[in-house]
Amino acid sequence: MAEYSTYGSVAVLQVNNPPVNSFSHHVREQLLDGIQRAQRDPAIRSIVIVGKGRTFPAGADVREFGTSASGRTPTLHTGLEAVDACTKPVVSAIHGTALGGGFELALASHYRIAVPSAKVGLPEVHLGLLPGAGGTQRLPRVVGVEKAIQIITSGRHINAQQALSLGLLDKIVQGDLLKEAISFARSIEGRPLHDRRISRKTVPDAERVDEIVAAARKTVIRRSRGAIAPLTCVQAIQASVLPFDRGMEREAELMMFLMTSWQAPAQRHAFFSEREVRRWTHPRDKSISHKTAKPRVIKSVGVLGAGTMGVGITISLLQAGLKVVLLEVNKKQLDGAVKAIQGTLAKKSRQTSLQMSRLSSTMDYSQLRDVDLVIEAVFESLKLKKEIFQKLDSVTKPQAILASNTSGLDVDKIAAVTKRPDKVVGTHFFAPANIMHLLENIYGKHTSAETIATVMQLGTTIGKVG
Question: In whole angstroms, what is the distance from residue 459 CA to residue 439 CA?
Answer without folding.
Answer: 7
